[in-house]
Write a structure and sequence with these properties.
mainly beta; 1 helix; 41 strands
Length: 552
Amino acid sequence: MLWLPQNEIANSPSTPMLLKKGPFAGQMLFGDVTYGGLQRADLEKVDGEYQGAVFRHTQGLEAGITRISTGPDGAIYAGGLGADGNWGQEGKLRFGLQKLTPNGKTAFDIKTMRATRDGFDVTYTKPLSEETAAKLTKGAYSVEQWRYVPTPAYGGPKVDEEVLPVAAARLSADRRTVRLTIPGLKTDRVVHVRSPRPFASDTGEQLWSTEAWYTLNARPGAEQPPTSYDAESARLSGGADIDTEHAGYTGGGFVDGFSTQGATATFEVEAPAKGSYDMGLRYANGPHPFTGTKTLGVSVNGGQAQQTALPFTGAWNRWSAKTERLALRKGRNTITYTYRAEDTGHVNLDMIEVRRPGSRIDLFSGGSVATAWQHTDGRSPDWPHTADNSIEVCCGDIRTKQAFGDFRMHAEFRVPKLPDDVTGQDRGNSGIYLQERYEIQILDSFGVEKLATNEAASIYNKKAADLNASTAPETWQTYDIVFRAARFDAAGKKTDDARITVVWNGKKVHDNVAVDGPTGAGDAESAAAGAIRLQDHGNKVRFRNVWIEPLG
């Protein structure tokens, strides 16, 4: 029902106690031996699943709490009994008994937190002040989410941490409930919500506790089936196992052990309808025990396996994707990857993506950046949300978790207005790397009469744009790109160059241009599909409305 993130809201929680009276009637209190104090749990049932929020209720007690009960006088009796090691709250007594007597007053606090289809209703015990209400802009609250995966260790790390934007914060007529609209929410997550400070009631009291941790098992309304499945959540056998040795993976790790024949990973996936689906396997194929394409068998629902060929990725921390078109039945299906006698094995698996053929993939439209992107070292993106449902370059390049072959993509960008003495490659510089190999340059080239091969819309240092379609800094511009990947034969020899078409602000500036190799800092060419990478060149360039459609 509730995840209790260790050392944030609990550590060694003790027996819950139902509250039968008062403003929090129907909720539960529980103590904690090590974290100390009392916490409060507010539960609801959504789609048959219990879930809810946990809040801090009070600290300041003389010992860590092992037991609480309600006395015949209505007071709460809190008993603390510690032991050796960390079985006791740091800096407090080893044991104690305290009585907490209600004084008839209601603190200004979060009363309940309820899931909605696109966010949460956060209800407070008292009306908000007019000053607080006036400051409830969409950016007032901060929200993040993450999940956990089972590990053999004591506890486990947060996985898939994401900072989420708040698209709207609307106050009810009685000024007690704030409805938060939060794009990018996912089930099977802990959602951490922090109210802003200062935050006062209509009588001037400041909010008692500003934080809530909500365990989102189900969302109200029809739930869309997931499209991505991490390999470490698959059913593993035959020597397949979870590892974290090589960076750049998604989720909590990747699956290795495919050096042993019989190693198997079986994914359970949901299909909304019977039909054909594109199954994109994210994998790494490094140099051991040989360099080149390697193979596994893939089967659906226990049927006959077919062989899938996974091109060389260059290193074990370089991830690509191989897409197979598979027929699924409506509802639950199994997708199994196996190292058979006729296969080579020796690959690592990270995740699969399940999508309808030709469907548009939303890479960013104002929701969570971490849904589709990661930093190149595998970290969750640190690029902040900015105005106009955009994100701003920060803290290193980001790349898509998925990899693509041929595709059509759209991206909107905005370069900053800089002083006139800032010139050359320091002026609004960024770039879009296709397959992380070929850069389409972003630069403030407004008013430049003849563009060079390192200016806006160029195929970087390969070919300048045919004309300057730039608009002024701080205006939104668009690139519409059609990309055909380089072709390679079975021996890994290139047989045809990559080809690029670019329409810049509605004007075609590259028409099916052959590109004879990677640009600038681009990765080496190979038959493996590649990610889209957005460059951090130190300038405050912004992106929005980025999408891609795989072709072929």
